[in-house]
Structures are given as structure tokens and as C-alpha cells.
Amino acid sequence: MSLESTTVQDKLVETFGESVFQFNQEKDVFSFEVAADKITAVVLFLKNDPTLRFHFLTDICGVHYPDNAVERQFAVVYHMHNWYENKRIKIKAFINGETPEIKSLTTIFPGANWMERETYDFYGIIFTGHPQLKRILNMDEMVSHPMRKEFPMEDGGRTDKDDRFFGRTAFNG
């Protein structure tokens, strides 16, 4: 018998109540939101429950919503997979834009280490409890986080690029 989205939702609501909400089926991915302070408990439950068995953390990424209210300006998105039933889920936790922090999952999934470092590097989201939260792809000297919406798209002082080749002006060549 396959694992149904309604089973996942019912178990989550029964265990976490109003801390889990916004359940939605998007094609073959079941998604929901979780209160940020409950993320480790929810992920641990999804992993350890004998029916749910979401043993694989596929991805962690950040999203910046600068136009949202300050308490929902960033989201951390987690993708998990149950290989037994080939069921995928997406979990979204919104966090405060002034102090973007959420608990690290490295004690539950050691593979979260580099995913959290990448999210920190590009969005500036702090994963509390992370064993070595530092930049992973950008230079250590960099003071900004390039995936935030306020980060400039390109260096305005560059003279080595011809805007015509980037669709910015009409090309009559």
C-alpha cells in the first residue's frame, strides 16, 4: 500500500497541531509550512516514524521575499524523500528578515552540512548549532550575500560586456 499525502498530513497535524499548515499537493510533491522553531522536531518525526520513513534529505535552500512582512522575509525550504514509497515532500519555514536564523539539521542529517553552508553563503541565513558555518563558494572577504534581492545583478563599472548580446538593447548587426 502506498503512502498517501493525507496520511502524512494527518500524522503531522496529530503530532504538531497548528505548527504545521498550508498543506498542498503540487504535482507529485506534497508540501506544507512549519513554524520555524519546530523544524528539527518535524524533520526528526518524518525521518523516524515507521510509516513515514523520510530517510533522505534531498536539498536545503533559501528564498528571499523582501516585500513580505519582516517576520516572513526569508524562507528555508527542505526537500525530503521516502525511497520505500517514492514519496517526496517539500517543507517551508519562514524566518525573520532582521535576524534570519533557524536550527541546523546537521545532527539529524550530516549531509545538511554543506547545504546549510551554501544557504548561509548566498542568503546570510544563520543555522544555529551548525558545526562550521562559514562561506563555502564565495570569498571569505565578501560582506554581502549574492542571492538576496538587494544584491546588484552585475557590476555597473564593467566595460568588457556589450549589452546588445544580453538583450538589453536592439541589435541591428
Structure characterization notes:
- By secondary structure, this protein is an alpha/beta fold.
- The protein has a single domain (5-140), classed as Beta Polymerase, domain 2 (2-Layer Sandwich).
- The chain has helices at residues 5-16, 39-48, 112-123; strands at 20-26, 29-34, 56-64, 74-82, 87-95, 101-103, 126-128.
- A hairpin with a 4-residue loop joins strand 4 (74-82) and strand 5.
- The longest helix has 12 residues, at 5-16.
Strand order of the largest sheet: 1-2-5-4-3
CATH topology category name:
Beta Polymerase, domain 2
Q: Order of SSEs, N→C?
A: HEEHEEEEHE
Count of folded domains: 1
SSE arrangement:
Layout: H1 5-16, E1 20-26, E2 29-34, H2 39-48, E3 56-64, E4 74-82, E5 87-95, E6 101-103, H3 112-123, E7 126-128
Parallel strand pairs: 2-5, 6-7
Antiparallel strand pairs: 1-2, 3-4, 4-5
Short descriptors:
single chain; 173 residues; alpha/beta; Beta Polymerase, domain 2; five-stranded mixed β-sheet; two-stranded parallel sheet; 20% helix
Give a quick rundown of the structure.
With 173 residues, the protein is α/β, with parallel strands linked by helices. The chain is built from 3 helices and 7 strands.
